[in-house]
Input
Amino acid sequence: MSAKEKPDVTIVGGGLAGLATGIALADSGFDTAIVEARRKPASDVFGFLLWPPGTRTLRWLGALPEAAKAGSELESLTWFVSGKKDTWLSVRLDELGCGTFLGILPSRLEEILRDTALRAGVRILDSVEDWSLVRERASWTLRAERADGPVELRTPLLIGADGANSRLREELGLASSRWQPSGQVIVTGVGGPLPSRESRQALSSTGSGGCVSLGEEHSWLYTVAHESEATDPERTLRHYASLDPEPAAAFEQVRRTAVVRPWNITVPRWSTDGALLMGDAAHGMLPHFGLGGSLTLEDVPILREVVEEALRTGDTCAARLSAFQQRRRARVAYAQRTSNQWARLLSNRAPGIQTARDLAVRRLVKDMSLVERFYRELASPSVPALSTRMRMLLL
Output
């Protein structure tokens, strides 16, 4: 016989998106349950680079002090074209005055958020082997199959926080489409510590490589390349060390590499009656600017406001829940466009593309006030000013 529960909100997905949302809703007094397949965080093969809007949400949730201890508060961001001394660009993040940039292992952040969620009273149902869903009048019944027996959740509101490959999105019949840079792959791994607290990116004629400090013991190392050049992932990842000597020692501690085909996802409609998508389930991002995790965390305060109003009034229809998408649309769309444009430049083999990219970096070096303004505005929860966007496009 099934154990039966009646939470106010059931969240499908217990990663960054689901845990952060669960904390926010539980803090508002809602009985909240999370359904998750995994028993523990996945092994790390990449890192999070969280921008100030994301770290402000962590502070709001009460999780930033512990996350900052576990990760690395970044002091600078550096771009350069390999072999060209006049195309180095470095932004002092700690002097922008817009908040904390944080590098952290995903598994460590998930552990911190899980502990915070449990303290807030969130019911986390992990190790879910399968689940089924039925809509009945104004509520959902989700039946979760677990090793210790089935659990039946009857809830007026479902939140899809189960990532870009969201099963809940499919079950709800919400359409989506994907786009990926042609032929592009990212080879990624977690290595040893960097000598400084920064994010670095080296551009070359064959693509790019980067590293992000994740704390005193780890860093995130990656190479963006054409798929034809990534047949030996470890060698491809180590190619970055030949472009930038700074993280060379960190490569010696890489134990596992992964090859990822980056893609983003567009979902025209994020809600239906009694259900709402957020995070990567609603707006999966390319990782090239490191904005995906931050955008997910940015969702949470606005999502809580919309959910509070819906549950307070007893009206969880799609029209009311769509207020969340309306309030997030411009910011998400701009971030996706920016990441897409950068991705096209990194491994595009069209004649003249790399030359134009290098020239743009050279021009940026000569106008650091524009660079700082761009990062300061992108680090706010709004869209950069039109004047800033136009000047960046004209480079």
